[in-house]
Amino acid sequence: MITVDRERCASSGQCALAAPEVFAQDEEDGRVVLLDATASGDRVRRATTGCPTQAIRSD
């Protein structure tokens, strides 16, 4: 299960680049939008570890 903390998000977009099928960026504020909370795999791990503010958690 993936969770995101939109308040912590710095709008860098690294998650959307790493896993565009799981993450997007809000068009108004640029913060992370979670598209699939049940996704897993290497791309999700890259997005999680690549988040500069650690706003993404994956179990």
UniProtKB/TrEMBL annotation:
Cofactor: [3Fe-4S] cluster
Database matches in InterPro entries: 3Fe4S_ferredoxin, Fe-S_cluster_ET
Pfam families for the chain: Fer4_13
Signal peptide: none
UniProt keyword terms in alphabetical order: 3Fe-4S, Electron transport, Iron, Iron-sulfur, Metal-binding, Transport
Domain of life: Bacteria
Function: Ferredoxins are iron-sulfur proteins that transfer electrons in a wide variety of metabolic reactions.
Protein name: Ferredoxin
Natural source organism: Nonomuraea mangrovi
Phylogenetic placement of the source organism: Bacteria, Bacillati, Actinomycetota, Actinomycetes, Streptosporangiales
